[in-house]
From TrEMBL:
Transmembrane region(s): 22-41, 48-66, 97-117
Top-rank lineage group of the source organism: Eukaryota
Transmembrane helix recorded as keyword: yes
Protein name as annotated: Signal peptidase complex subunit 1
Protein's UniProt keywords contain Nucleotidyltransferase: no
Protein's organism: Spodoptera littoralis
Signal peptide: none
Keyword annotations of the record: Endoplasmic reticulum, Membrane, Transmembrane, Transmembrane helix
Similarity section: Belongs to the SPCS1 family.
Job description of the protein: Component of the signal peptidase complex (SPC) which catalyzes the cleavage of N-terminal signal sequences from nascent proteins as they are translocated into the lumen of the endoplasmic reticulum. Dispensable for SPC enzymatic activity.
Alphabetical GO biological process terms: protein targeting to ER; signal peptide processing
Pfam family, one: SPC12
Length: 120
């Protein structure tokens, strides 16, 4: 079981961009080649087979977290402890939420009344 937990399952943002570009290039190339080959031999199934091969190749190259996609890891900040937070200062979250809720209810009520009068 330790073998499965030791396998890396993440890629960084730069790696995601590389994987996306590679995926698009492979699918585009195989779709063009498949279209041209299918047109030459007059078989639509050949175009589908070539495009399917492109999907499989793109999936093999871009879905697993290969090491080429993990070269630029993010340096995360360490979490702050509870002692570092300022004491006695209330957050704006409670007040902001109440203002937002009141605004939303008022806006909904006004729009409902306006909709009711436009029905007649």
């Amino acid at each position: 079981m330790d073998f499965f937990t030791s396998i890396p399952t993440h890629i960084d943002y730069v790696g995601q961009a590389k994987a996306e570009k590679l995926y698009r290039a492979i699918i585009t190339l195989f779709s063009i080649v498949g279209f041209v080959w299918g047109y030459i031999v007059q078989q639509f199934s050949q175009s589908v087979y070539i495009l399917g091969a492109g999907f499989i190749l793109a999936a093999i190259l871009t879905v697993p977290p290969w090491p080429m996609y993990r070269r630029n890891p993010l340096n995360w900040q360490n979490p702050r402890s509870n002692e570092e937070k300022p004491a006695g200062k209330k957050g704006r979250n409670e007040h902001s939420y109440l203002v937002y809720a009141a605004h939303t209810m008022t806006t909904s009520a006004i729009s409902s009344v306006m909709y009711f009068f436009t029905l007649k």
